[in-house]
Amino acid sequence: MAQTALIVGTSGIVGGAAAERFLGEGWRVYGLARRPSGPAGVTPVAADLQDAGALRAALAGAAPEGVAPEVVVISTWSRQASEAENIRVNASMVRNLLDALRPCGSVRHVALVTGLKHYLGPFEAYGRGALPQTPFREEQGRLEVENFYYAQEDALFEAAARDGFGWSVHRPHTVIGHAVGNAMNMGSTLAAYASLCAETGRPFRFPGSEVQWNGLTDMTDARLLARHLLWAATTPAARDQAFNVVDGDVFRWSWMWGRIAGWFGLEAEPFDGTVRPLEAQMAGDGPLWRAMAERHGLAEPDLGRLASPWHTDADLGRPIEVITDMSKSRRMGFTAYQPTDDAFFELFARLRAERLIP
Fold first, then answer.
1. Are the C-beta atoms of residues 163 and 326 closer than 8 Å to each other?
2. Domains present along the chain, CATH in parentheses
3. Which helix (H) or strand (E) holds 210?
4. Is the separation of the CB atoms in 303 and 358 below 8 Å?
5. Helix, strand or coil for residue 136?
6. Which residues does residue 171 pair with via DSSP β-bridges, in sequence order?
7. Most buried residue among 129, 229, 344, 351 by CB atoms closer than 10 A?
8. Residues with catalytic annotation?
């Protein structure tokens, strides 16, 4: 009999990739979201994690016997106006979910996806103050600042101690993957920006800081993260552990920017040290994208559903070099590797095949 996983956030980059991975390994997969979507084969569960009563009802009614997963993947969050509200809302979402699953008694492992804001701080204090040295390592403690990632972890730890299941926390760097309507999507954002530059003849300018242009960095392919989630859920040594998750290579944007430009048939404009945020560069491009969509027969005319410039600016504008250590996973046997330029190229090819970019 197939094992069962509940993946929260299947409409997002990470959740969609996780669903594909678990399905590919023969698991029965339920996908929970407010407006469920995801790969073929996922059983949708429509629920709002902020509504505890409706959540319990949705999980109980999604199958004749109710949803009784062995593994739960939490790969969603709700952005709020302040970090205090982020903490309140996102911790309660984790708590509501695990409380709703408690009666089924089937859960043996819960994986929580957070990210490098564990080390860099929340949006309100991102990359400021006293930060740990890079490469970031899992044994580095929490920052002396309120952070909704910490609140989510605490809700997970409390439920695990109460109910006896194992847990894992996964901290990717910027994630490359496929999703439409996602609020944090560098891959689709850069694809849309490059497509606009190709269409209009505008220069393809790096939007970020000199530190990011010249410094080393790494990223995380959503498919590799999905493999890591499945590995942690099925590897006894990974129980009750927090992990960094990155592709395994490092690069400088001074190299990667030219690689991305070349894929779109563009010349990368030399970087002169000036920060030119994408949010400003793309501020008036909505009507232009809609016209491009009509001209090229694109499937998504709303630029806002493909691009999230504010988030890409936050990553590419950081004033510090950020690289991530994965030795903990390597020592436990996870050896998967993904060249990051190929991750970008494979995403771009998929976006083009699905008529999301020209």
1. no
2. 4-172 (3.40.50.720), 180-219+250-322+337-353 (no CATH)
3. helix 210-214
4. no
5. strand
6. 244
7. 229
8. 117, 149
88 Cβ neighbours under 8 A, 6+ residues apart: 80
Per-residue pLDDT of the chain (358 residues; tens, 9 = 90+): 679 999 999 989 999 999 999 999 999 999 999 887 778 899 999 999 999 999 999 888 766 567 899 999 999 998 899 999 999 999 999 999 999 999 999 999 999 999 999 999 887 766 566 777 899 999 998 998 899 999 999 999 999 999 999 999 999 999 999 988 877 899 999 999 999 999 999 999 999 999 999 999 999 999 999 999 999 999 999 999 999 999 999 999 999 999 999 999 999 999 999 999 999 999 999 999 999 999 999 999 999 999 999 999 999 998 889 999 999 999 999 999 999 999 999 999 999 999 999 9
What tokens were used for 202?
Answer: 């505008």
Which secondary structure element, helix H or strand E, spans residue 331, and what is its range? helix 327-332
